[in-house]
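Quick question: what would this complex look like in 3D?
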Amino acid sequence: DIQMTQSPSSLSASVGDRVTITCRASQSVSISLNWYQQKPGKAPKPLIYGSSTLHSGVPSRFSGSGSGTEFTLTINSLQPEDFATYHCQQSHSTPLTFGAGTKVEIK
Amino acid sequence: QVQLEQSGGEVRKPGASVKVSCKASGYTFSSYAVSWVRQAPGQGLEWMGFIRASNGYTNYAQNFQGRVTMTTDTSTSTGYMELRSLRTDDTAVYYCARETPYSGYTDWGQGTPVTVSS
């Protein structure tokens, strides 16, 4: 199974900050890497697929990059609605696996 | 628009079974798989497996082999996930989701909380 390691597990940031979250795969997943945003009590919301393509309606302050085993999610100019938990997921091979999540909290 | 409507919360005793439903609308049900993902309290997301609605092919995570059965009813565009021999650590919110090729899980149900307690 491909293990996904996210870091940090949590971070505190202020509105307007730039935030970067890293996701590492235990073996290459090419660009089959997706990101989701989840708020308490809600289902995950798709943000990015194929490492760097934003889903429709996702603000352009979100961006993703990487290939192989190392990926990043960047949020430029953090907004109040961005405080949430972010999950990476590899869709290269089954079992599909998720990172443990990164909680972005208000400083 | 695509909607995945799940059944309501369940409470079970250890050793029992639970069956969660996921009714789809807004797309051609038989053209996609129904996947299941769970999330234990305060934990991350755990992939359970999927079933292709077109032919019933299933792919289950090793952790659930022998305890889970995923089925679909194309006449009602509904997917089902049954988990047997429940343990207290099966307490979680169970989500169904639709995967769009190369785009990850684009649509999710609202989640079904399952509590396993004696």
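Answer marked as accepted. The radius of gyration of chain A is 13 Å.
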